[in-house]
């Protein structure tokens, strides 16, 4: 699943905000029991690993000039909730970029 979020920020500012706020991602998962780890394989990509309620989901955040793209590897068993997850990513992802 790919969820693009448009922005008008310089890439350096997007990187800074994502690095400073990546710890907030766990708060976006309902139930408050999520474990989120992040890594930066390069300056324009943040890898995510989310573990909650016995399930694991991996993804990436790709930083582009005019958008940030959240890519999430949803297992087939969760594909029915893709619209709900995409909406939450749009909402919460935008909050990560807001000052």
TrEMBL record:
Species of the source: Qipengyuania pelagi
One Pfam family it belongs to: PHA_gran_rgn
Descriptive protein name: Polyhydroxyalkanoic acid synthase
InterPro entries: PHA_gran_rgn
